[in-house]
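Protocol step 4 of 6: structure prediction from sequence.
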Amino acid sequence: TVSQKVDQPMTLGETLPDYYEENLHYWEEDRQQLHGALSQLEDKTQAAIEFVFLRELPRKEAAKRIGVSPMTVTRHVKRGLQELVTLMKSQASERLAS
């Protein structure tokens, strides 16, 4: 009971909610949604996003690996980011509706 715990020492960590664990759940959910949205992109657009953002390659290197010009990588990245925003918003709306 509460009265029994009054005299026992308690750390601040024991009294605060565990936001880290809660946030891990949300981060994992976001990661899964992003992966799902990425998989819906056209192959070269998906590759451009993955090389530039996830692998942090320069656009010139990404272009070599994809087989397009650096300018085309830039276009794929721009288009891909727009599509990801749309897809992620749609997924969020579906989640809220259910």
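Step 5 (inspection) to follow. Residues 12 and 18 are 11 Å apart (CA to CA).
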